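Just curious. Protein, please.
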Amino acid sequence: MIIIEFREIRLEDKPIIDDYFQQKRYEQADATFMTLFAWQKPYEIQWAEEDDVMYIRSGRGKKQFWIPPFAKKDGSFLKGVQRMHEWFDEHGYPFLMKGVTPAAAERIRTLCEDCYEFTPDRDNYEYVYLTQDLINLSGKKFRQKKNNLNHFRNQYIGNWEYVPITEEIFDECMEAEKTWYDQHEEQDDDEELLGERHAIEEVFNNWEILQPTGGAIRMYNKIVAFSIGEMLNDDTAIIHFEKSDPNIRGLYQVINHEFVVHAWPHTTYINREEDMGIPGLRHSKESYNPHHYVEKFDVTLKK
């Protein structure tokens, strides 16, 4: 007997998957259709539905993992975890759940207090900021950010503008992404960077259905930075992608600031996702003084 049959994520699945994510307030990037759809090929993501519970798995063979199940009102989160155990046992794979938030961890513990190991996955903690902090950049803790922002504005006065992303500039944005990639391919994980490029292309190719919000910076008639996000829950926007030419001082601060000012002033929080353990990215995200983190844990069985 095959337990839980997984399939690829199709655009026509969006209303079904969205309905699961709207059942309660989720803070993590995993709880958006756009994340799953855009990254499904690089991360080999699939989904399944059974008895008002949705399951998401990633990877292959003994390296695959699941994220905690999403349950509707009439579905059971704990039964979902038990069904996961059955699936791993049937396939002979070691039980591994990733992306487990503290709230999900507490619920999992109620199944068996001493059965699981909970290991903090710091590289995948998501950074959540107060929107007004990112807009105002007030006080000493944001002094350097404001200095860089003002330097850019003064240096390039009259030679730059913020523009919303529309179909007309998709190709220009991908050119900016290529510029960024060429400057990073030797120092970062090339496979991860190519996966991200594919994810961005998927978003552009399906923009009308996914309905993201995007903004870009044009300098001297060329797109040099862009950012793409969406609403995550009723008070939080999430930034999925942000690319900026690192050789232009203040440009990173400008795209960060302008995107929030133009697209998300009505929100309370901005989730800027994880740092993946990349030292430079971690330093950058820490330097914006996050309000809190969406903590994540890996869950395995105790030996």
Q: What stands out?
A: The domain at 126-273 is CATH 3.40.630.30 (Aminopeptidase). The mean pLDDT is 95.
